[in-house]
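Model it.
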Amino acid sequence: MQRILQPGEIEALAQRSIPRIRLPKRNEVFSARAARLRELAPGHAIGDYLRLMATLVEAQHGALLERGAAPALDPDRLALARAHGMPLLQAAGRPREPGWHDVLKQLCAAVAEADGFPPGVAATCRRIMQAPNVAIEAQVDALLTLRDSQVDGAMAPFVMAALQVAWVDVVQPIDVPGVCPVCGMLPVASIIRTEQPYQGYRFLHCALCATEWHMVRAKCSACQAMKDIGYHAIEQGDDAIRAESCGDCHAYRKILYREKDPAADPVADDLASVALDLLMTDAGYHRGSGNPLLWQNPEA
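Modeled.
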């Protein structure tokens, strides 16, 4: 006779039998995302913006491939992180390497030179390239500590894109519940994987370093509640993406189903499904966290 597992037993089993962490594939993460954005753009209500972000992500791919070997990790920092259960490369606390500003300028130059975008795009890129480092660092601090009112919405996607290149290059995991086990950032969305050994399992996807970590299904990724979890979709819309909501904290994050669309990408498809965000806002829910390629000032 089969026995129904209780929530705690499900999680204990998951810890033993399911691969806990998926590190990003360095040579694929940005190229696959750019291809997905270009696939989603034609005929989309925000198709021009998706094409712009595809151009930016393609530049990310090129910048990552041009980077040399990642710097060695400090063994004392590694030991401290493991001893205290902290993310190894904590986004808001880790000293940033000076070279990341060069990556930012490289990304902006690539987008500024691209054809088919309004003049304001190139103007924004030039403004970022000419900004003093102290102003750029202030934006980074605002972005990584979620001080929304201090974020420059036009600058933010480019800054986050440069940071993504830097973090993807050095990922190593520490197991920390609720946040990314590598950098401590929040997930942008979750995805049900289809490839072995991850088939059928749900993973949260980091908005910064693209690391993924396992979480059992039907569990709120914001407050960890396992009751009153709901799933929402646009009527006659894409059935490969839904919003998973929590009745306790009233937060939601999107969940993607690779069995329904093998090309689904947590960042690209989350960005392209803004209509679902509007549906959830109208229903009284708020996002658990934002998308790194779209930053909106809540006071605007």
